[in-house]
Amino acid sequence: QFCGAPVVQKVFGTLTVRGVPVDEVAARAVSDDRTVVVMTTESATIEMEDAGSRQQGGCLGILTGISYVSGVDYYRGINDKYTSMVPKKHIIPPNPTMLMASVDCDVYAKLLTEKKWDKVSSHLVNGVARLVRGGVDLLVIASNTGHIAVPAIEAQFSDLKILHIADCTARAIKLQGLTTVGLIGTEATMRESYLKDRLARHGIKVIIPPEEVLGTIFSFIMNELGFGVFKESTRAYFGTQIRALKDCGAQGVIMGCTEIELLMDTYESPDIPLFASAALHIEAAANIVAKSLSLDEFLPPSE
């Protein structure tokens, strides 16, 4: 079963996948460099699922591995929020239908540090291709920096809907009536325009930390936070950067990296609001698949 659609069927003792004999599927998988795992027992019964039993929000695709820590957070967060919103149907509250694709973070980090943006995008597009083959309806990229690949993804998969993390963050910023915010994230996120330009389409101006600290922030992300290492001294350092952005005119600060959000989860900033972009992204995804909100409610205003 892929995303609620019937794909496996047993007909007169012959196991088929979407009507194709398993032997033929395996041959195709080998030629396409794909993997198919089929498990059967003599007593197994394979039941077809009718169209009405699909989860109400279709199939959500999560691109992760950038880093895996954020992917775990997205999977848990979307499930937790969805099950709290959707009523129990049979025995327990339902969870959303999701597929996840995880790419190699080592390759990703190498390409980022080398500033090979086209290759970064190609690396992520390969992960998205696996999700598209699985039949996802909506893509969520479990990373701010990963959104650098959005133009390439849109060019390759024009019918695929994407919930952009900057749109979710902008919605929360506008609800508080703010127009100027600081941004802390990977070096690419702070330097490049893929998030800042998207936020600008919502009428939001972005301030980043000074040049001399960008590399240090990225080093913490790659060498500590990306591996789930959260030190008090590192938390204090990021707190200093948040206060510095406020002094430069930021009315709030975007934590533009999932791992930074996890680090600063217990940090209190009563004098400046912090916008946890991944948490906002997760909440929006859960609301969309539960059909409490629509994707259109997050998109930039028409220009």
Brief synopsis:
It is built from twelve helices and eleven strands.
What does this structure look like?
The protein has about 300 residues and is α/β, with parallel strands linked by helices. It is built from 12 helices and 11 strands. It has helices at about 20-30, 70-85, 105-115, 115-135, 150-155, 165-175, 185-190, 195-200, 210-225, 230-245, 260-265, 275-290, and strands spanning about 10, 15, 20, 60-65, 95-100, 140, 160, 180-185, 205, 250-255, 275. Helix 11 links the parallel strand 10 and strand 11 (about 275). Helix 2 (about 70-85) packs across helix 12 (about 275-290), helix 3 (about 105-115) packs antiparallel against helix 4 and helix 4 (about 115-135) packs across helix 5 (about 150-155). The radius of gyration is 21 Å and the shape is globular. It starts with 7 loop residues before the first strand and ends in a 14-residue tail after the last helix.
Overview features:
4-stranded parallel sheet; 15% strand; alpha/beta
Q: Given the helix and strand composition, which structural class is it? A: alpha/beta
Compute the gyration radius: what is it?
21 Å
Share of helix, binned? 40-55%
User: Helix count?
Assistant: 12
SSE order: EEEHEHEHHEHEHEHHEHHEHEH
**Main sheet summary:** 4 strands, parallel
Strand count: 11
Uncertain stretches: 1-18, 25-55
- Integer average pLDDT: 83
- Broad shape: globular
